[in-house]
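FAQ
Q: What does a multi-component entry look like?
A: The components come first, one per line:
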Amino acid sequence: MRNSFLVILVTALLICSLGVLSIYSSTYQKEGKLWQTIFERQVLWIILGLTLFLIVSSISYRRLWDWTHFLYIFNLFFLFLVFILGAIRLGAQRWLRIGWFNFQPSELAKIIMVVFLARYFSRKSTDSIQLSSGKFGIFRGLILPSFFTALPVALIVEQPDLGSGMIVFILFIAMLYLTRVRLRYIVLLVSVVSLFLPFMWHFLRDYQKDRLLVFLNPNIDPLGAGYTIVQSKIAIGSGWLFGKGWLSGTQSQLHFLPESHTDFIFATFSEEWGFLGSFALLSLYYILIRQGFLIAQRTQDSFGQLLAYGVTLVLAIQITVNIAMNLGLAPVVGVPLPLMSYGGSSILVTFIALGILVNIDKTRAVF
Amino acid sequence: MIRIRIVIWAVTSVFIFLILGLLNLEVIHGRMYKDLGNRNCVRLVAQNGSRGAILDREDNIIAGNKLSYDLMVLPQDASQREKIILDASRILGKSVKDLKNAYKVNFVSSSIPVVLARNIDIKDAISLAELKVDLPAIIVQPNPLRYYPNGKLASHVLGYVSEIDRWRLTKLEDYGYKTKDIVGFGGVEEKYDYYLRQEEGGVSFEVNHQGKFIRTLGFKPPLNGKNIRLSLNIKIQKIVEDSLSDKPGAVVIMDPYTGEIFAMASSPAFNPAVFAEKSNNEIAGIFSDSRSLLVNRAISSSYPAGSVFKVIVGSAALESKKINQNTSFNCQGSTRIGNREFKCWSTHGIQNLAGALAYSCDVFFYRTGLLIGPQSIHDYALKFGLSKTTSFELPYEEAGFIPSPLWRKINKFRNWFDGDTANLSIGQGDVLVTPLQITRMMAVFANGGYLVSPYVVKAIDGRDVSLYQEKSEKLVIDRETVDYVRDGLRRVVSDPKGTGSVLSDLPVSVAGKTSTAQAPPGQPHAWFAGFFPYKNPRFVICVLLEHGGPGYVSCLVARQIIQEMVNQGLV
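Then the predicted structure of the entire assembly, as tokens:
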């Protein structure tokens, strides 16, 4: 459907340009050539992303069905590679240097897991057009997919990238739910994980523990771990209804807000554009998500449908987790805001995801 | 499919939840966060103007200002703070613990610099200021500080300056006073604080997360306080204070016609610089001294008047025609009133009023007092300005007290007896007066019948305010009476047997009255109140020595003062 293509493209570009404006605003005062040109690099990423979007949207998503296993192994391989060759930045080993580009495999892992799970659950039995996932027993319905999911999740969490790990896990549960796997399996999974949560506490890094603790009470350490959350809330709160105006946000301009061009770009944006601007931005995101769900609902093919739901959910989860984190409603985990945050991996992967969505709609229309 | 709907609804409600969160943060709590944001990046550094100087009548500085340096630190950066405290302790030679303590005590809020040390040496200030290159959170702030070139001189007239207390703050908050403001306590500093007070200025500037200066947002230049010129003459004041040395007492020297105070000393005095420099040990010493250093004995404490009161009784008797200039009584060393024997301090024989004043004969005044009655004495005392404040400018003036039969009945449920009248007639009993009241009373005889209003502030900010001072008031009293009493006062000094004859060999002619006011259990208070030169009086003087002994002692002090004034060509 041409219509969805246009809506998604225009919305995505609008969000991207707001992102570039905010990146410019939060970095133009910083010293160093790198900072001065960072918004140009973002523009470059967006152009690359658009190209990928156009390419992906013209490749039938059914190819993904064929490539699923290859993609999954490819994904695990990259995640392993991160451990061996990964560049360490900000205390985490998440990036692979490919030429001049620092690639973050955990970003790509989200999409690949969607493809993998979509294929896994869209198997049909030979005697029915219904999806067989509703009849899956505990092994095929829960243990096996859990294993396949746990493998990359464990690798991601170990990087450590708790945020991406969490997102894949939430996505997994959402996909389980959407594919008519028996509700009790899902309840079982969630309760088992909840039971293990206290034990997992010991496996967390100290800074992750701190972040969780300050999420519960940011004031316990206002200059340490709680600093970011406090500054982010101040930035957003001081925006008021109309904001301080572009290039006038003191929190981000004067560097009180760390990561103001990546994970906390929403706070930067909100400080300068106020409640009205933020509301508009959230609406744009909602339009995007809504389009994704509409495409999924229009799609008859179960693989395509699950894929569309999955891709939309990945975006929705990232958006909501990131904004909630900016608002101090979720713990600080390193999740970028799709299309806004500076960063090649995130931009490219998001455009790929949007490309898949558009393609699903297009392919459906062709049939 | 129901599960799909649920998922879509879940996503939608999360979005709504986020929008509500935004609304809460940006709209409902927006003002709070805006303040927090400003506090983050806006720094205020106050700049103080200097408090108005207090000058004597010839524009000599009594209380001025000098520059002192305060070490302050911006509280945001904890690691810098630690380093600054370490360096400061090395340079200033103070212990790290003291400085940390000072930080805790002086911390107000995260946007206001905290004072670590006050009044640091200029050399230390420079070496600390040099650290600013590496430690931008350090601030060395020059501050005008009260400075007293003459030390303790006129300390009671001046008062002192210190941090505002809670009581004053509640009273003065509406006039723009804030916590930690420096305000005057006592004396001119308190009374005219509003004029003396400087207006605080300051710079507000924006800083980044490292506390680095970004740009200036606003600047308000500080305003200096207004200078106040007093009527004091520091030369006379100095003579007076030297003569008093450290004996507890007070001296007032006043212009008999205008009421201008040339000198007002109370001893023992305190050094007001101690308060300005906040040297806590010495301040504690001043407060704990049993001699009440801070009390201005010239106005804030009242004493039995003793024989100086006889001047009033004599005038009252003449005015009420109960006696005339020739009325004489025979003093045989004592007289019986009721069933009690009232003693005189000597045996004076037959004498009239002038003689009785000269020799300070008690018997004469017992008799005279009984003739005119206590109510009349009381009324005349009030006429001469006793038993009420002189409406002098400085705060904490005592009214003193003159008893009357009515008061006795109402307040003590006791009757008034002739013995009480006798006591009242010689200024004893319940009579309480301040040295300033006695000075003013004495001025009536110096200037020929006018009750002046004493004042000490001549000009504020160069504008003459003596015009606004209360005018002197013509007493309803016969000129003849005044002249007669005046003559008697001269005889106190000129008569070889007069109680003040010790003053007779001075180069100026002095008139006055001595007094030995009984104040058991200690020594009597020694008074001398008089004026000089006799013909054309230019000064009224009152000397009081608290438990100083007989009036003669005060005469010696007065003599020393007048002699020195003559020597310095001030008379």
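Q: Is there any commentary attached?
A: Sometimes. For this entry: The two ends of chain A are 11 Å apart (CA to CA).
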